[in-house]
Specification:
Strand order of the largest sheet: 3-4-7-8-9-10-11-12
Helix content: 10-25%
Oligomer: single chain
Shape: elongated
Number of helices: 11
Number of strands: 28
Structural class: alpha/beta
Largest sheet: 8 strands, parallel, barrel
Amino acid sequence: MKFKNLALALLGMAGASLAIAPVEKYGPLSIKGKNLVDSTGTTVTLRGMSLYWHLHKGGKEFWVPTAWKNLMLDWHNTVLRAPIGVDDVPITGMTLKGAVSDPSTAYEFATRAIDAAILYGFYVIVDWHTEKIYTAEAKAFFGRLAKEYGNTPNIIWEIYNEPNGVGWGQIADYAKQVIPEIRKYSKNVILVGNSSWDQHPDEAGTELDGFANIAYTVHFYSDHTFWGVVGAAQAKGHAVFASEWGMSSYSGDGGFSSITGGGNITKWIQTLNDANVSHCNWSFGNAASGSGTGSVSETSAALNLTGVSTTGPWADGELTESGKSMKAYLISKNPVWTLADTSLKATSPLKISSDKTTNFILGADSIEFSASFNRKVKWSLIETGRTSKATCGTLSTKDTANISFSHVIGKKDRTSGAFQLGETVDAVITPGNAKVSYTISTVSGVLQRVHEAQVSWNGSRLIIPHNLINEGSPIRVSIRNLAGQAVFQSAMIMGAYGEVPVNMARPKSTEMQILEITSGSVAIHARLAPKF
């Protein structure tokens, strides 16, 4: 009997050791048809909590990484929504500054959530929390974050919280401008809002079908009964994500309906689980009822107004009825999680992103490298010629998780010696010591003048600044995607007045493309925006 009990105990210990962090279990997420899927293509349903606005009392106090760690470990929370308040909020005697007027603070809160998600291993939704359209500001916000974090698998982008007073056409036009900013650097899942506070995920047509990894949000509260829109959207082949829902009325106060109470919320949660729709509960905080004037937390808040820890873990006595219901639900539905392995790992290996890896013209051709890590880090890349033993180096100026840079072969500030024609060069990145190699052409080249230029497409012709390449000069034109794959390559003769006779319409693409035109000592580089 003692041996049997010992065996059972050892089995229990072995089972416990199998627990891992959410991102370690599911990996990079993507959209496949109407479903959110993990790295193996298996449908996955994420369940978790949404924080309260980053700038509000009752919310910002819980934007604490230790709290989020305890949510994952104690509540089995898989995904955390981080709502970045966009608009200014006037309150008595002061104005709370949102992301439009204080982008630095908004960025700090967003990176705090992302860095914690990477450290602990949960998923995070970066939510642009507004009812209005701020296209330029959203492009700057998401472009900066995407450039810094790239394809970091923990991140989901939510580009428009709850559109109000605008129709689907305006929302789609906005999305078509913001999504490409993200897609320059990140292929991660993007959530797109819809009209009337996300009550119509089924209204989207084919407008955004040219983009990969898109899902449409639905938001609901206890006084809402429009759950039929979930199936209607999925019938169009679209994925749905309930990035915000609450057990109160839509105001956030009153109308409590628990997950197991048999009312509207019970029906909603059953609908979501049956349809494999991921969902985040509003909200993990303790905003006061009565628009901040009450003596207790509002109904949708998970934590009591007083006597509650900002870091956790939390006893049931610190939780509201909504908090108790949500904790029990997450524990019943989600796996047991442990903290992620925080050792540094490459999430995308070092690679040469140029459209070739051989026959680079010394002092003329540019070579591009890319890589990404599971967290931000300072890095260096050293290139060493096998024959000449010459070296050139590139060092990061700040911590970053996403690496992408280019330079002309043999032309760097940090050099020692000179590369030789025909030799192989090994490039090694630190940390990690991953290596890639390229070869230099045996043909010498003339040092190119590289121009970053604005170009336009006119029918079957490209138009470039007319004073860069002489009419009648032989040129080579190449277009490649961000992965370095050639979309178009051809040799031709330069036309008059900056016309490049490519004799084809602009290739369609859902992501940024790189154009390169070379002629003798001149190289022209340009980025082509997505075309649908």
